[in-house]
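Researcher: Please translate sequence to structure tokens.
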Amino acid sequence: QVQLVESGGGLVQAGGSLRLSCAASGRTFNSMNMGWFRQAPGLEREFVAAINWSGGTTYYRDSVKGRFTISRDNAKNTVYLQMVTLKPEDTAVYYCAAALSGAWYGGFKALSAYDYWGQGTQVTVSS
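Model: Translation complete:
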């Protein structure tokens, strides 16, 4: 069993920054690939960013490239999502997800590639 707890969400003006954190417990964190997803009201949950178990490989959706940075600290069992130059369209509930194996079966963008999910943290960007 893996527990994921997100934090760091909030209300920010357009152009502002936030850093989301996701603390993991219950399994060996440094063997898990991790991802961030988001879901806006009325829309499907979508991929935002992913990082492999070592932190050596990262992926981003096109709309956040250059603005968001995913990173991890295996000593702290935590994955981060640094978000800068936020836009109103970034408003959503952000979810952390863990893939237990060292691979993303179905691809790193697929919800089905992840075994555990956090409860989400709200990010609201005002214009």
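Researcher: Any highlights?
Model: The chain has a mean pLDDT of 95.
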